[in-house]
Amino acid sequence: MENKNSHPKPDDRSDNVEKIQQTVENTLQNIDEAKETMARSPEDEKAAIRAKNKRREETIDRLRDEITDEYNHNQMDS
Fold it and tell me: What is the three-state SS of 6-59?
């Protein structure tokens, strides 16, 4: 049953930049840990690790773009 008096929560984007930045830092740490693991991995696993790190780096690029967008959005709201 739907409550007709309820309203959606307001869009609170005030801490998105910090959250996304933390995700970037965690992903960078994962890349470093994967490189350490790669040093003692068989060749077939190294290829998989390289591929995953490439995807992680692409994700970081997109997240950094998102940080810029969020920052600009927050500046417009100020």
Answer: CCCCCCCCCCHHHHHHHHHHHHHHHHHHHHHHHCCCCHHHHHHHHHHHHHHHHH
Question: Using CA atoms, how far apart are residues 11 and 9, in angstroms rounded to an integer?
Answer: 6
Q: Break the chain into its structural domains and give their ranges.
A: 16-77
| CA quadruple 41, 47, 53, 59: dihedral sign | negative
List CB contacts of 38: < 8 A, sequence separation 6 or more. 45, 46, 49, 50
Digit-coded pLDDT (tens) for 33-66? 999 999 999 999 999 999 999 999 999 999 999 9
